[in-house]
Amino acid sequence: xxxxxxxxxxxxxxxxxxxxxxxxxxxxxxxxxxxxxxxxxxxxxxxxxxxxxxxxxxxxxxxxxxxxxxxxxxxxxxxxxxxxxxxxxxxxxxxxxxxxxxxxxxxxxxxxxxxxxxxxxxxxxxxxxxxxxxxxxxxxxxxxxxxxxxxxxxxxxxxxxxxxxxxxxxxxxxxxxxxxxxxxxxxxxxxxxxxxxxxxxxxxxxxxxxxxxxxxxxxxxxxxxxxxxx
Length: 230
Hints:
By secondary structure, the chain is mainly alpha-helical. Helices cover 74% and strands 0% of the residues. It is elongated.
């Protein structure tokens, strides 16, 4: 629901959004399959390791389904595990299991950069999808710069993480790639969300643009501005 009220503090709001995101995504689906792969690979080879990772991905889906939780992100994780397994089978190496994630990170970084250049920052698109606020509000001249700045933060995050993982891949450091997957996954993503929210809200206030409600009602300036959400 759109609101310009100040009744909710920054900390409770961002913690609530992080809990909601973590609950939707199903963290285990992104971590357990590669752990299973790297555990089995030194003992039994690529094929058993791939099989184990796919079984674990399937178990995660079944577990979430049995609890009545959304399986959308678990299925997404399983698809990622299948693609990673195909790369590992093709190249016959454990570090190849992580190559699709590296390529995905590079593509995400490029997409973020392009979105800034065409003045449609991807952080704004992400917010529009999740919040349902009017798309035209995000492109307002006193709103869009806040989302462009936030998108630059994402460029640094995804670009830095991709370069780190690429170096580990070149060094054939499968264990290091697993550490990078874990540390650069949800812990770093949660930190990114907090920083994005904090800096984005600060930039919105500095721009003194209209809130969503004020934009929809065509209220004249000066505006109160968006007091909650980003």
